[in-house]
Specification:
Radius of gyration: 23 Å
Shape: globular
Strand order of the largest sheet: 3-2-1-4-5-6-7
Number of helices: 19
Number of domains: 2
Helix content: 40-55%
CATH superfamily of the largest domain: 3-Deoxy-D-manno-octulosonic-acid transferase, N-terminal domain
Largest sheet: 7 strands, parallel
CATH class of the largest domain: Alpha Beta
Number of strands: 14
Oligomer: single chain
CATH topology of the largest domain: Rossmann fold
Strand content: 5-15%
Length: 446
Amino acid sequence: MLSRILLSWTLNGVYALLLLAFTPWMIWQAWRTGKYREGWNEKLWGLVSRRKSDRPCVWFHAVSVGELQLLRPLIREYQKRWPDWDIVISSTTITGRKLARESYPDLITFYSPFDFSWAVQATINRIRPNVLVLAELELWPNLISTAKSCDVDLVIVNGRLSEKSFRGYRRIKWLTRSMLSKLDCIAAQNETYAKRFVDLGALSSSVVVTGSIKFDGANPDRSHPEVQQRKRWAGITAKDTVWFVGSTQDPEEAMAVEIFQRQRERFPELRLILVPRHAERFESVAQMLHATNLQVVRRSQMASDTYGKWDVLLIDSIGELRWWWGVADLATVGGSFGNRGGQNMIEPCAYGACVSFGPNTRNFRDIVEQLLQNQAATQLADKTDWENWLIEQLNQPEKAEKQGQIAAAWAASHMGATARTLEHLEAIVESHSRARTIPFRRQDAA
């Protein structure tokens, strides 16, 4: 007990020093981009909305938009299977919080607390969860330790542990073991990740392999009303060939526009859709586009008189990407030509688009390996390779269509992780459902 308290307050001191060191940068970012302007009562003090119900409760935590979308099928099935449970959802980023509010207006949604012991304790006191579900890899010592001391069951879903993360956690294995050994269930994406969790100190009995929930979150149906609605909004017809470049980082938009400008006269049916990864870059990308001679339309400004009258469509909205992928004939997944390590390429594959991505895909190494082995996607070396790929697909549409069919079949074959995850959650959930008790009733001072 004493050692836990000592570790907790040592971490508090480290976090405080880091927060002070980064405060000037956060102030600058708040002024420049609008980030870090809200949620400080929740983040720093844990003053989230107080849950009033005495029903059992599960707390889902996702870092940002990607993790929230990942959790969508799991939350949906959880609600169906255990309708008598309360669900609360936290996120770390402003875009994640915004999407959570929009997607789940009837649920308590909030900013996750910083890992200060008092913030974590206050949040748990107000939410009173029975189960805390963490998406992919959210290991915070005070959060895990405090939750466990309050009899909250801890679960990681869609667990992933990249080689880089594995090496980093091995350097602090004494701390990592302390956290992982407290987890009641780790649902890992594959055997490699499962072995790494055990090597770092997780109990082998708590680690299971379920596959990736990201496959279940992908929609394979191009006829879905949400997809068809967006095609109508954009005025996309059967004559158009849509090249969709999504989840981009700087300078991928400029690279794509340069390629598009060179090829649009040769292929007049070609249209380009761009989706920057981060909302704070929407304006700068729009300025770059408006400096060209291209006809540009922004999703946020789309009106009836712009239908069909654009060369480049900029999607400057949050939470729609999963539907916009469904309008793509050719798809390039961004974050892969810079240093980000790639973005999720499962969604365009599930729709049957002809998919490509750049050389830096370390965050999706296993998925990329499978795609390349099955000839379901193409990895590109640089901008020249990217342009040659585009020309080849436009000249050989039958080949592009065939690769898209292979990609869709590959994605379909990996679905089902949500159901497998719920099977392993069932014992934990049912134990609380039978007890019908709240684990504690502490009240914070606020």
